[in-house]
Write a structure and sequence with these properties.
This protein has 343 residues and is α/β, with parallel strands linked by helices. Helix content is 38%, strand content 15%. Helix 9 links the parallel strand 6 (219-223) and strand 7. Helix 8 packs parallel to helix 9 (232-238).
Length: 343
């Protein structure tokens, strides 16, 4: 009995083991299979793909933007390395789309003709004159006007106070540094370029672009890091001149200035300790790059050492000038010496 019992126990144990693996039940009946789903779950999803291949990952979105920019006609991707300014490390990437949130901000952006992509209006938003005006301006400009939920609008604006209204701005595509000198050559004029060193306020960038356009400049050069980019604030401050005066970008400003010097341009830096008054800037009649530093720190050491001449703007009190104001004064002096001021 004990042996038989042990045999049954062994057989029972074996049967339970097979049942657990999808074979038969305790009563000896076949157990339904999983159709292979269980096996696929055990196989896992394989190795984790690299970041630039993972959908939704910031690296993947950045790669997609770069590929889209590279495939765009005139992006410079099909130009030889020498023509793309390999020595300057020049690049033609664009900033990602920007969201302007809030009724006043959106209306001001549309009135300033900031290039938009889409106007978003939240469902069941209480309309006022600002929303009605924004919708009309967007429609007149041919922009899509989309109604969306507030949760989606919160996500698009990253939690900013949007008041049920937001505008997506087109990404700005920067010019190549060589494009600025080419523009001057096409016009038959000596180049006049403004370079920014550490200017972080987009409104200053926009104001400088406006001054450069007013005094015959051929473009503005900015570094790729630690600087203001072309944002909605820059567009508004430029009063639309960003649409006709290019902004170029280079990862390393000092190397870009060196390349300009090799091409025959003189580099003049604005500095409080400059050795020459701006009224004595005789070099302004030559091909010229005017370098403007930040309001508090001024020019960086590396950029200051790269300049052919440091000039100062005399002022009556021991204060520093706003970067946009300083650039406007220097551009006016250059235009005066070149005889290009309107009469």
């Amino acid at each position: 009995m004990s042996g038989a019992s042990g045999g049954r126990g062994g057989a029972g144990g074996s049967g339970q083991g097979r049942a657990g693996r999808g074979g038969v039940t305790k009563k000896g009946k076949p157990r339904p299979g999983t159709g292979g789903y269980g096996q696929r779950r055990l196989e896992g999803k394989g190795p984790t793909p690299p970041a630039h291949l993972r959908p939704g990952h910031p690296a993947q979105r950045r790669t997609a933007r770069q590929e889209a920019a590279a495939s765009r006609p005139g992006s410079g991707a099909d130009r030889p390395a020498a023509d793309r300014g390999q020595g300057t490390g020049a690049q033609r990437r664009g900033d990602g789309p920007e969201m302007v949130a809030g009724r006043n901000a959106v209306l001001e952006a549309l009135q300033a003709k900031v290039p938009g992509m889409t106007l978003y209006v939240a469902y069941r938003t209480e309309t006022d004159d600002r929303i009605r005006a924004a919708v009309k301006l967007a429609a007149d400009a041919g922009l899509p006007v989309l109604e969306t939920g507030r949760a989606e609008l919160d996500r698009l604006t990253q939690g900013a106070v949007h008041q049920g209204l937001a505008l997506r701005i087109k990404p700005y595509h920067y010019a190549h540094p060589d494009d600025l000198t080419a523009l001057a050559a096409d016009a038959g004029q000596p180049p006049l370029i403004v370079a920014l060193d550490g200017v972080t306020d987009p409104r200053n960038l926009g104001a400088i672009v406006r001054s450069a356009a007013a005094f015959g400049g051929h473009g503005v050069l900015i570094p790729g890091r630690r600087t203001a980019g072309v944002t909605a604030g820059a567009w508004k401050a430029s009063a639309g001149t960003l649409a006709r005066l290019p902004v170029a970008q280079a990862p390393n400003l000092a190397r870009a200035l060196a390349a300009y010097q090799q091409a025959g341009l003189f580099v003049v830096g604005l500095a409080a300790n400059g050795s020459t008054d701006i009224s004595d800037m005789e070099i302004a009649e030559s091909p010229l790059v005017i370098v403007v530093g930040s309001e508090g720190r001024g020019l960086s050491r590396v950029v200051a050492e790269r300049c052919d001449l440091l000039v100062r703007i005399p002022i009556t009190v021991a204060e520093s000038l706003n970067a946009g104001v300083a650039a406007g004064i220097a551009l006016h002096e250059a235009a005066r010496r070149r005889g290009t001021l309107a009469r």
